[in-house]
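The authors assume throughout that readers already know how a fold can be written as discrete tokens. For illustration, here is how one protein appears when written out as sequence plus structure tokens:
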Amino acid sequence: MSPIDTRKSYHVLIDELSRQLDQPVVLIQKKTYEELNVLLANGEADIAFLSTGAYISYKGAYPIELPNASVKPLNLFMGI
């Protein structure tokens, strides 16, 4: 997804977080996992949407708290 599409997709969430927190919320986009991990490690980002690769590569000073999520079991069909 392009940076412009990302902003379009997340603007409703950003606006709602800002409203509920009663403070500005800023969307920061980075090109690499490393750039994102530096922000997290330095405490410069409060919330991040991480891919599996970014999460695995994170080795920061701050622990990452994962939200609870429901995971649906996969129904796999193996054809013969």
